[in-house]
């Protein structure tokens, strides 16, 4: 039995509706799992920035990562003017939606043997093709870098994408964000190698090796570090003053 064009159109439309509803249903069902995976992945990167064993963390499931995070990390919310905001949580911050939240900052305290061993702050900035997201961890002196991670970006693999590689991130360990006078200097990514570009031994502690062919991404990392550390200086200065 032959069927007309109307039947064909109706049947095609019905298939589209069923497929669309099915996709929506599956997406809604999977959303909690996606959110849980993203949270665990971010927490793992915070732990990595503090120098925890990446091989061991890679073996852990989400529940184990969350348990370790809860044991070792304390989340704080700061105002950009340098004081704690105890009635807010990091999870509640929505700067893209609430204007008042734009003045609030997340900070992560790392605990070892019951004492504070370091601090981590989220870093966000522009690369060549994408926004770069990561965490920078400092020792409790708020000067020496413990580690850095980049957990999300869309830079070119083999070029700017190298910011996710261990060799690049390990360059930051032990670097200093303050100059000899205690003023913020931050850390810059050089074009090439530090030992070839920076000849003053005292200045080398503020620079890391660059990525070949990724000048704009490198500049983006340099800018995001300087800008973010400047925002946190009001609170960090108070902490240093009390040490």
Description:
Strand 4 and strand 5 form a beta hairpin. 40% of the residues lie in helices and 20% in strands. The strands form two sheets. Strands 1-2-3-4-5 form a five-stranded antiparallel beta sheet, with helices on both faces. Strands 6-7 form a two-stranded parallel ribbon. The radius of gyration is 23 Å and the shape is globular. Helix 1 packs parallel to helix 3. The model has no long low-confidence stretch (mean pLDDT 89). The chain has one domain. It has 243 residues and is an alpha+beta fold.
Short recap of the structure:
By secondary structure, this protein is an alpha+beta fold.
* Distance linking N and C termini: 88 Å
Please state the structural category. Answer: alpha+beta
Let me know the largest β-sheet. 5 strands, antiparallel
Order of helices and strands: HHHEEEEEHEHEH
Give the overall shape, derived from the CA principal axes: globular
Work out the strand percent.
15-25%
Give a topology summary:
Layout: H1 5-49, H2 54-59, H3 62-72, E1 73-79, E2 104-112, E3 115-126, E4 131-139, E5 145-152, H4 166-170, E6 188-189, H5 194-197, E7 207-208, H6 215-241
Helix pairs in contact: 1-3
């Amino acid at each position: 039995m032959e069927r007309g064009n109307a039947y064909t159109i109706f049947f095609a439309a019905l298939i589209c509706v069923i497929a669309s509803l099915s996709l929506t249903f599956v997406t809604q069902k999977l959303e909690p799992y996606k959110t849980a995976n993203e949270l665990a992945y971010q927490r793992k990167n915070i732990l990595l920035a503090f120098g925890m064993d990446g091989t061991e963390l890679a073996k852990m499931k989400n529940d184990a990562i969350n348990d370790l995070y809860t044991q070792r990390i304390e989340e704080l919310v700061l105002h950009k003017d340098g004081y704690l905001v105890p009635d807010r949580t990091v999870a509640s911050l929505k700067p893209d939606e609430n204007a008042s939240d734009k003045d609030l900052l997340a900070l992560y305290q790392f605990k070892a043997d019951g004492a504070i061993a370091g601090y981590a702050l989220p870093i966000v900035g522009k690369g060549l093709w994408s926004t770069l997201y990561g965490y920078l961890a400092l020792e409790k002196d708020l000067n020496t870098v413990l580690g850095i991670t980049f957990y999300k970006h869309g830079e070119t693999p083999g070029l700017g994408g190298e910011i996710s590689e261990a060799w690049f991130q390990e360059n930051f360990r032990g670097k200093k964000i303050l100059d000899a006078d205690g003023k913020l200097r931050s850390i810059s990514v050089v074009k090439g190698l530090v030992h070839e570009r920076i000849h003053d031994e005292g200045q080398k502690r503020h620079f890391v090796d660059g990525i070949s062919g990724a000048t704009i991404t490198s500049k983006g990392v340099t800018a995001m570090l300087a800008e973010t550390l400047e925002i946190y200086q009001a609170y960090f200065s108070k902490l240093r003053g009390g040490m």
